[in-house]
C-alpha cells in the first residue's frame, strides 16, 4: 500500500531519491520467513520506514543529497540501518535531503527540492525534508533523520508531524555520512509520539563502532510515551524565544500549548537563558569548521565522482575539478567559512570563541534544569516558507533553526510535536530535557500532542 501511495504522490512531493519495489518486497518476505521460523520479532516488525539518504545502506545507493556521491553503493550498513533490519522494519527507500544535511528547506539537494504536502509551493523543512514529507504525505508511517542544528525538529514542525532529536551519543553515528561530528544525531519521525518512541527504541543504544556513543541504556521512551502525565511537572518557558521575527500565529499556538500543559497540572514558569541568543552564530562557526574537516575525505580517489582523470592531470587537479563540480554552493560556502575559522591566527578569535559560547549555553541549560524539569519553546519562529523565498539569503535560511540549535550545542534531548495550525499551516511545540532525559520529552509530548 505504501509503495502504491509513493507511486501516486511522489511525482509531486519528491520525498524519495531511491525506491526499488523488488528490494522492498524481498525485505518484507524475509520478515515473514523469520516469523515463520519462530523468531520473536519486535513491535515494529514488518512496518515500513523511509530512510534518510545520509545513512549507508548496502543494498541501496547513498548520496547524502550530493552529486559527489551519485551512484555510490556503500559496502556496509550504518548501525541505524542494521538495527532497523534486525527489528524487522522494511526500508522503503532513501529520502531526499539538503546536500550533506546543510540546510533548512531541502532546496540544497542536488536532486531537486522536496515539496511540503500541506502546500506544494512551500518547503518541507530541512535538512531531513524528504523524511518529513514522506510521513506527512502518508508515503511512510515512519522515517529516520539526523539533527545537527534542527534537521529533525524543524522539518517535523513545518509538516505537522513528530520529530525527535535524542541525546547526543544516544543513537549511533557509525555509517552516517558526517556533517559536524560533535553535533550529528540520528532520530525518528512519526505521526504520533508513541510511534516515534517505538522507532527511537528500535535503533538507539550503545554502539562500540561510534567512539562518542554513550554507554548508558536507552531511557524508557516507549513507557514514557504510553504514560502521558504532566501533573506536578515544572515547565520553563524560554523567555528569549519570542518577540521580533516570530510569527504571531505561531506564538498563539505555542501559548495555547502552554495553557494546555497548565490545565493538565504542570507548573509553568518563565526562564531566562541569556546565552541562547548566541547559539546561532556559535553554531555557524562550529558546524562549518567540522564540515570543512569532514568533507576533506571527498578527494575524488575514494568515493563516487571523479572528474578529469585523463592520465595527464595530477591528483590535485583531479581533486580540485571533482570538488568544484561535485559540491553545491552551500557546501562550498561552509567549507570556506570553516577553513577560514580554523586557520592559524583566526582560530582563537572564531572557533575558540564559539566553543566558549557553547560552554555558556550548556551552563544556561544546567541553571534552568535546577528550576524546571523541561523547557518549552516554539520549534520554529515561522511556519513553512515558500520555495525560493530564502534560497538566496543564507541568514534568513539559518534563522529557521534559531530555537533548535541550543539543544544541539549542549547535546540535550529535544522533541517537536504538532501544536495546531497557524494560518492553515502546521506549527510545532519544542520540548527540551537534560542529557539522557529523552523519556521526559516523550512523556510531555504525549500529553499535549494534537
Ligand atoms: N539548518 C541547519 C544547517 O543548515 C541544521 C542542519 C542539520 O541539522 N543537519 O546547518
TrEMBL record:
Keywords assigned: ATP-binding, Ligase, Nucleotide-binding, Protein biosynthesis, Transferase
HAMAP family in the record: GatA
Active-site positions on this chain: 52, 127, 151
Function as written in the Swiss-Prot or TrEMBL entry: Allows the formation of correctly charged Gln-tRNA(Gln) through the transamidation of misacylated Glu-tRNA(Gln) in organisms which lack glutaminyl-tRNA synthetase. The reaction takes place in the presence of glutamine and ATP through an activated gamma-phospho-Glu-tRNA(Gln).
Name by which UniProt lists this protein: Glutamyl-tRNA(Gln) amidotransferase subunit A
Similarity annotation: Belongs to the amidase family. GatA subfamily.
GO molecular function: ATP binding; glutaminyl-tRNA synthase (glutamine-hydrolyzing) activity; transferase activity
GO CC terms of this entry: glutamyl-tRNA(Gln) amidotransferase complex
Amino acid at each position: 500500500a505504501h509503495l502504491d501511495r509513493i507511486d501516486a504522490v511522489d511525482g509531486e512531493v519528491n520525498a524519495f531519491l531511491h525506491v526499488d519495489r523488488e528490494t522492498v518486497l524481498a525485505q518484507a518476505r524475509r520478515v515473514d520467513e523469520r516469523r515463520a521460523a519462530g523468531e520473536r520479532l519486535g513491535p515494529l516488525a514488518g512496518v515500513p520506514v523511509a530512510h534518510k539518504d545520509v545513512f549507508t545502506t548496502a543494498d541501496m545507493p547513498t548520496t547524502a543529497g550530493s552529486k559527489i556521491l551519485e551512484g555510490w553503493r556503500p559496502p556496509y550498513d550504518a548501525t541505524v540501518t542494521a538495527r532497523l533490519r534486525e527489528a524487522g522494519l522494511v526500508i522503503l527507500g532513501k529520502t531526499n535531503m539538503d546536500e550533506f544535511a546543510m540546510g533548512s528547506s531541502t532546496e540544497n539537494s542536488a536532486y531537486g527540492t522536496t515539496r511540503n504536502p500541506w502546500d506544494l509551493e512551500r518547503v518541507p523543512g530541512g535538512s531531513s525534508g524528504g523524511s518529513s514529507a514522506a510521513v506527512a504525505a502518508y508515503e511512510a508511517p515512519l522515517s529516520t533523520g539526523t539533527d545537527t542544528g534542527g534537521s529533525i525538529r524543524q522539518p517535523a514542525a513545518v509538516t505537522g508531524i513528530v520529530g525527535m532529536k535524542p541525546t547526543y551519543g544516544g543513537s549511533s553515528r557509525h555509517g552516517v555520512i558526517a556533517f559536524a561530528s560533535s553535533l550529528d544525531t540520528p532520530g525518528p519521525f512519526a505521526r504520533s509520539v508513541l510511534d516515534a518512541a517505538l522507532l527511537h527504541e528500535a535503533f538507539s543504544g550503545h554502539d562500540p563502532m561510534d567512539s562518542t556513543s554513550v554507554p548508558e541504556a536507552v531511557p524508557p521512551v516507549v513507557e514514557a510515551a504510553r504514560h502521558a502525565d504532566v501533573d506536578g511537572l515544572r515547565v520553563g518557558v524560554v523567555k528569549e524565544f519570542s518577540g521580533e521575527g516570530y510569527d504571531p500565529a505561531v506564538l498563539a499556538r505555542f501559548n495555547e500549548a502552554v495553557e494546555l500543559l497548565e490545565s493538565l497540572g504542570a507548573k509553568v514558569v518563565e526562564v531566562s537563558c541569556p546565552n541562547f541568543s548566541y547559539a546561532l552564530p556559535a553554531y555557524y562557526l562550529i558546524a562549518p569548521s567540522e564540515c570543512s574537516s569532514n568533507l576533506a575525505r571527498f578527494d575524488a580517489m575514494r568515493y563516487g565522482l571523479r572528474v578529469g582523470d585523463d592520465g595527464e592531470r595530477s591528483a590535485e587537479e583531479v581533486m580540485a575539478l571533482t570538488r568544484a563540480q561535485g559540491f553545491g554552493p552551500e557546501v562550498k560556502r561552509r567549507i570556506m567559512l570553516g577553513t577560514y575559522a580554523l586557520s592559524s591566527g583566526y582560530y582563537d578569535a572564531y572557533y575558540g570563541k564559539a566553543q566558549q559560547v557553547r560552554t555558556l549555553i550548556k551552563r544556561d541549560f544546567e541553571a534552568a534544569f535546577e528550576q524546571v524539569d523541561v523547557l518549552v519553546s516554539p520549534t520554529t519562529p515561522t511556519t513553512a516558507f515558500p520555495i525560493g523565498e530564502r534560497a538566496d539569503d543564507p541568514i534568513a535560511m539559518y534563522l529557521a533553526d534559531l530555537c533548535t540549535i541550543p539543544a544541539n550545542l549542549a547535546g540535550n534531548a529535544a522533541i517537536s510535536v504538532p501544536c495546531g495550525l497557524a494560518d492553515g499551516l502546521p506549527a510545532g511545540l519544542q520540548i527540551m530535557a537534560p542529557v539522557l532525559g529523552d523519556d521526559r520529552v516523550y512523556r510531555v509530548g504525549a500529553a499535549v500532542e494534537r
